[in-house]
Amino acid sequence: MNNKKIRLSISLLFFFLIFSIASFAKAEYAPGDIIVKFKENVIAFPESIKALSLHSFSISSSSVENLLSSLRLNSMKKIFPNEKPPIEAFAVVGSKRIKRPDLSRVFLLKFPKETNIETLVQTLKTLPEVEYAEPNYIIKAFIAPNDSYYSGYQWNMKKIEAETAWNIETGEANTIVAVIDTGIDYNHEDLAGKIILGYDFINNDDNPIDDDGHGTHVAGVIGAITNNNKGVAGLNWNCKILAVKIMDSNGSGYIETAAAGINYAANNGANVINMSFGVDADLKNLLQDAVADAYTKGCVLVAAAGNENSSKENYPAAYQDYVIAVAATDQNDLRSSWGVPASNYGTWIDVCAPGTDIASTWLNNNYVLSDGTSMAAPHVSGLAALIFSQNPSISNENIRTQIENSCVNIDNLNPSYAGLLGHGRINTALAIGLPIIEISSPKNSSYVSGTIAIQGTATSTNFLDYTVQIGYGTSPSTFETICTGEHEIINGSFGTFDTTQKPDGIYTLKVVVRIKTLLTSEITTTINIDNTPPQVTITSPKEGEIIKELVTIEGEVKDANFSYYTLSSAKNSNFVIISASSTQSANSILGYWNTKGMEGIYNLKLTGVDLAGKENSQTISIDIISGKAPSVEIKGITTPGPNPFNPQTQSETYIYYNLSNNAPTTLYIFSISGSLIHKRSFPSGENGGKAGENLVGWNGKDLFGTTVGNGVYLYKITTDMKIIGSGRIIIVR
Known about the structure:
Layout: E1 2-7, E2 18-19, E3 29-38, E4 43-44, E5 51-52, E6 58-59, H1 62-70, E7 75-78, E8 90-93, E9 96-99, E10 106-110, H2 117-126, E11 130-137, E12 141-142, H3 150-153, H4 155-159, H5 162-166, E13 176-181, E14 195-200, H6 214-223, E15 240-245, H7 255-267, E16 272-275, H8 286-296, E17 300-304, E18 323-329, E19 351-354, E20 358-362, E21 366-371, H9 373-390, H10 396-405, H11 428-433, E22 436-441, E23 446-448, E24 451-459, E25 463-472, E26 480-485, E27 489-498, E28 505-515, E29 520-529, E30 535-540, E31 546-547, E32 550-558, E33 562-570, E34 576-581, E35 585-594, E36 600-610, E37 615-624, E38 634-637, E39 653-659, E40 665-671, E41 676-682, E42 692-698, E43 711-719, E44 722-731
Parallel strand pairs: 13-15, 13-16, 14-15, 16-17, 17-18, 18-19, 23-29, 31-37
Antiparallel strand pairs: 1-21, 2-12, 3-10, 3-11, 4-6, 5-7, 7-10, 8-9, 20-21, 22-24, 24-27, 25-26, 25-28, 28-29, 30-32, 32-35, 33-34, 33-36, 36-37, 38-39, 39-42, 40-41, 40-43, 43-44
């Protein structure tokens, strides 16, 4: 922490709690409840009883009675039980003549909770006996804290949209955030009553009082008492804070006390652990064990990235499997810089949060502005606690996912650090209700054709619906809806889309998810629609031409999204690859074919494939006249080893065989569908083409250097296009 210790003036700048009642078309409502106002003389309700079952009152309308009975009405009661029909139909208020509402005819009807309330409301509205019908909407307060320094100093809370989030969740008292630090001034006016006294690992007692100020400042950012007309607002209004002291009055400690403090917190109910400390040594033992142990116990671990203006990893922040590493930003979403020191950065950073001029609690009922990633980390801890308060059954990993996926990308504001500031700056409003969204297929920038399946995930604790849309270009001005749904999708299908309805080109696919609070979140991916197959033409040799020995094959293969072409030949129906290339050709040489030893009518096929998987081919017949191939005898061939083959952990799989004499040989590897995957030729007399034992290997990659996927692959060993051995290789990763 770079602590400037600027004492705030005690000016009383009050915000008041503002309540606003609003009605929305898709607002939340009580399940099973409908408010109905009947017209006169529809319901005869005994005055002495205020709530009855269906058969305890009389309904003059058979259509209403039949409807309510068929829908399993549980009960109904007067919302205004003491109201009677008005004696006078109108009242004069000032210069206005206002019709008096008859509140005695307004009822709350309760149906089973699974009832489709919106449909039933629409049905009731059509009945002539009903004056109005509507769901039992839930109203909420729109909150801005009235804490003294909130308006003038706490820019950080506004920046991360905390006020919007507080309309959804302000925290729960059974959520515990552990502050592993210099202790906490638990007598502070803005923290008193919220602190759980943990342990002091510096003095080895049960009194973790802060004698430095750092831990008290961190605690205030997370959960200072809010809406109490004093001090500052904490991000989580109601959580408890477990004080664990691991550093002394100079802000120093040891990894021993740090590890002990983390373990203590994990074993004493902490849901979130804030670690605003670190060291740039490469720690892989004690501290990592303590962190890993806490993670397995379900804790969300948050750590400051450090203030050294460096990309070097700091620990515990850099334990990427377990910890959320937090860098600091300022009021303009720029990477924080405080003169010589500045926030660390790097590929190991997960998120950013405000860390410049952060107002919070200090020792002895004071408040100060402080800088540092130590101040950024507790913003993330407080947010994690809000998410946990909202959904206590959520996993620590899903909390991390919600925080990271809801960040605002700030790379464009920090071009020198693009890709080095994690997912961006946290957004509390999005994270607190953000659905987990993923488009798993089609992949970003992939090429597609025909009818495609749109697959992925759209889930949330407050899920309402999803919409899948498509728009032309990388930044569409308009989108067209492909499909919608009101059910969560988890590693499943959103629907299908016929790409032939659109011209070839680049499109943006978007999934928008709404939650019940009407917040929306979306994810996009770019696809390239290509339904036009490649153009392929063999110009030489010609159909029916007589050829012999080495033949030059010429032709044309073109496509806007070209991938590769293959030349293959077959005397019957089993085509063998002659050559392949990932470079398209405009009436030039496609390859060379050595027909020595071959004789008779052969088919020559040119196949072009584009990036969308569309292919086109041309086949011609030619007549080969030549001598016989030299005799080569295969003596033996073994199953490749290892088989199955894992290219991620094994460099190669090997094929062993014996030749009776020296001969040039070629190893071909095909997919199960017959596509050429790999080709390797061996000169006569050298390994692979020498008399006697030969051991040849394959590294699991295709013609373009990409590691192939799991599956069964077929290999053939040939000499002068004569197959002398074959088998299969199984790849399992």
